[in-house]
Amino acid sequence: MEKTELKRIVDVTARAGSMLLRSGAEIMRVENTIGHMMRSFGVPKYDIFTITNGIFLSASDGEEEDSNSYTRICEVPRNSSDLGKVDMINTLSRDIEEGKCTLEGAEARLDEIEKAKGNYNGIISLLAASVASGAFSFLFGGTATDALLAAAVGFSYYYLFILLNKTKLSKLLTNAICGFILALLTVGLVKLIPDVNMDKVIIGAIMPLIPGVSFVNAVRDIAAGDYISGAIRMIDAIVIAAGIAVGVGVTLLLFTRIGVI
User: Which pTM was predicted?
Assistant: First the structure.
């Protein structure tokens, strides 16, 4: 195998793995996908080490001293959940394994996947956050009024969340700001509308911010033996939850001290 071909294979597989990691895939899935693609492209020897924010990949075309080898390190600084892209890359991996896609075809399809927008645009995300907020409020014992107010609060603060995600603010600060606005809107609505359960509104509205995917992936990584990656994901989920708690808690404490609630 020519060294240039080996380099292209490693670059393509590392790119696919990085896109999976950015899209919220668990560590085992990333490494398995890279491994399937490597074997399908005829690379006999490779080593993969993946953590939540990086991939270390090396490959060789033989055991001899004069064998060609290539190493690639990919940084994945920040990730989000996009299960649509995870599915598309998994489909690409299966097509490669079945011989339905060449190396050139894989490069072209990765370009298409990278350019593809998320499954949901901003309006759909806002509506989903609104419906989820109202549904969870009702689920946790709120009245119909509580559910409607939670839906309104969820829609309002989630718009801010989408805007803040486009900036370079940390997750802790982003979620703290959203928690602050969430509690502020809830207190304002409670003062305007009588017979509203403030706790049910806050509990329902806060649910779209809860890092469920990060927490579940952390547990899956730990169960699969990827303790470093699992611990990192768990810390990430805890930081997000702490940001939400600080934002909501500070707002409620402030209004309690000044006698508003």
Answer: 0.75
